[in-house]
Amino acid sequence: MKKCLVVGNWKMNGSADIVNTLLSELAGQHVRCSAAVCVPSVYLDRARTILANSELLVGAQDVSMAKQGAFTGEVSASMLKDFDCRFAIVGHSERRTRHGETDEVVAEKAARCLEAGIRPIICVGESQEQRDAGRTMEVIGQQVDVVLNRLATESINQIVVAYEPLWAIGSGRAASVEQAQEVHAYLRQRLVTKAESIRSLVPIIYGGSVTSNNAAELFTAPDIDGGLVGGASLSAAEFLAILNSV
Description:
eight-stranded parallel barrel, TIM Barrel, alpha/beta, 8 strands
């Protein structure tokens, strides 16, 4: 049976009360897969404390491409490591579109994570216009190739790839299982060009309106190894249902 990974991305949501309540509900639960929650950076310490003896791991939503220095407002990978972050999301479409992050920036962020012993969750995805133009694989291929070319081959087995079609994020409209599987299979072949061993070592997870209603069907596809869950991760009951749908 393949290993699954499900990661909750809270985005810029939450409060001290929500962190305490939601994570406390999750902390004592047994889940059927590897799981993590990526909370806003100001709550990382609290999340680490609450989940200390839990099956759930802690992750960050972004990381600086710089190691240290005059970068006001940014958080380095080594700082995230101080809070026991096991994962960090890089290249989320909201960072790419709202903050102009290029493929090269995403690749540098992934490299910083790996240097600090953090697994980068590298997001790739196409817009509706790109899909309609038949450019999905071209766009996805370029995004992942820039990262693979930047990283040492021996470190690639530590990454996670997340396919998140822009047209499905927060829209309530998830890609069909067939659409997602096609892209995931393509991504796996792209990874294997670096090393055959990567085929079974790098999780390729799906992000884009994942809910308890569609998770089980998505996760049964041969090349979908879990999910990057947005809004549904803000409900303990819904997130647990997704975790246990594996």
